[in-house]
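Lab notebook, page 48
Experiment: co-folding of the full assembly
Goal: obtain a model of how the components sit together before planning crosslinking
Operator: M.T.
Materials (sequences as entered):
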Amino acid sequence: MSRYWSSLVEQLDPYVPGEQPRVQNLIKLNTNEHPYGPSARVIAAIAAANNDSLRLYPDPTSLELRQVIASRFKLTAEHVFVGNGSDEVLAHVFHALLKHDAPVVFPDISYSFYPVYCGLYQMQFRTVPLDENLCLDVEDYIPDTGDKASAHAQTGGIIFPNPNAPTGRGLELAQIEKVVAANPDVVVVIDEAYVDFGAESAASLIAQYPNLLVVHTLSKSRSLAGLRVGYALGHPDLVQGLDRVKNSFNSYPLDRLAQAGAIAAIQDEDHFERSRQAVIRTREQLTLDLGLLGFEVLPSQANFIFARHPTLAGEQLASMLRAKNILVRHFKTLRIADYVRITIGTDEQCGQLLEACKEILL
Amino acid sequence: MSRYWSSLVEQLDPYVPGEQPRVQNLIKLNTNEHPYGPSARVIAAIAAANNDSLRLYPDPTSLELRQVIASRFKLTAEHVFVGNGSDEVLAHVFHALLKHDAPVVFPDISYSFYPVYCGLYQMQFRTVPLDENLCLDVEDYIPDTGDKASAHAQTGGIIFPNPNAPTGRGLELAQIEKVVAANPDVVVVIDEAYVDFGAESAASLIAQYPNLLVVHTLSKSRSLAGLRVGYALGHPDLVQGLDRVKNSFNSYPLDRLAQAGAIAAIQDEDHFERSRQAVIRTREQLTLDLGLLGFEVLPSQANFIFARHPTLAGEQLASMLRAKNILVRHFKTLRIADYVRITIGTDEQCGQLLEACKEILL
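Observation: model returned without errors.
Model output:
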């Protein structure tokens, strides 16, 4: 606390990212990074951009990158907004599109940055509980038709991840569409950070729904957490609103190397396909193996699993694994304190995790 | 305008950066980039970081970079805040430290992003006119001692660049200190984007004044506009306030390559010294040469000059130079519409500019 802080600062409850250890030789299954590196074309593109041209500002509009992304989704560059990681994109989304007189709505168990953004932009929010199986019930996001006006008045916007984090549970596209169609007066944001590991993207619905915004990141399925690139897809009106906020904050959010690397990453569909399939295979095997050890593992469509053991509290398990140099993530949040979130590593890393669990449970 | 925008978005008047042309073979003297490339050590450091480790998140605290910066200024890492370009740093400064009940104060002719930030965070501001010579008079920023309580109540914070942009005029350190000392109840931000080209940094005053914040960028004197790194130096309480906002916005603003490159840039004092001295020499020569053509050139301590000609309006000159493939910057702002801002290029580029001016004035 300092008298120089704006009144806002004191009230903030900042987001706490997973530990980024400085020591080596840890098995790092705590921040949902990809176990395999990025495409060789990414490394080559960055190398080609690493020269005297760094003295020049990057393209403030990231036009070429936006065109490459657009073409992958059969959209135009006017449908694409890019930012310095999807966290920055989401921040601008809250500020530009979800801040209204009524509260923004999201699940009680979800990405824990959402309430933080609300704090930053002094927005009200309302959380909707997941059901007893930690599933998102889309009916909870459908305004009551008998009382439509009042239901509408109570919602400033909707956001949830698909698949959800940290549960890994996904929704079918028809269910997502139901929510988007039933809320035409507010923006519905589908946060698809993990969608490439088994769920279906709502990007195909963008041409039909001007209130739909889909957010992606290159940090997960493109193996580029270290490069900081995320993007949003939506109607050009939504993108224009985001642009106005971005251009009032930072003209050049993506540096030259990030733009070059991101373009190459999106273009290498083969590498993308191979490496995400490898993660999916390992996830399915790990789910089976942990089940044999007595773990309850939620069905996951992400690059992590959410699991609990009947005889061992989540916090205890996480700390015992930490003692064996394996990092997993535990949330002290009510309802999910029993669980740990385990990022899918290489087969070898997951094998070591299994061995460690066996020793702990002996 | 869209019904999905938050009420804020419509009111915004976003910043417009200088043109980043997509065509080649232009002489680009419009966005104050450095005419010489970054240190070879920067290129080597980025090359060394360009590998599979890009799959991992960067250090969210940029600790090593902050330590390297701190040591250059004989401070500690707790005195250093880093961001994705100094524009992002400034945005957080407005939000975290300058947003109070009273208006933030800055010069009428200054960095045109300041009022944009005020729009974004819905802050009041008051501009103080530069004098008739486009000089900043520090007396205008000293509260009236006879009426101290009311003067204080009228100021939420103070920010100005030193040297000022787009005039290039600098203030002496004693003058800066006078403003900082006379306003102990609010934060005084000295935006030193151009300080390395001839002005004196207020960083040496930080140990004495808990209300002083100094903002630097690697875009100008470190030749890294394309890498997006900026930082602020100040009392740890101020840095902590900035951290709280940053951690409520984006945990990882600096990617792995940017952190690696920035560390190398700060460490190469020789390259820094040589390349900034080259710019200063060229500036002094260009100032003389334009004077001989009848231009009035303000004395500059920056990597640009601000000049006008008695027979040619600024807008006309800029557009005639554009026709000759030379970009300079013109502002339509009242009081300075007669001027053009010319970035210091290489000696050859400045020679071509002079030739073009001669032809235009013939």
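Interpretation: Chain B touches chain A through 86 residues (CB under 8 Å).
Next step: discuss with group before ordering constructs.
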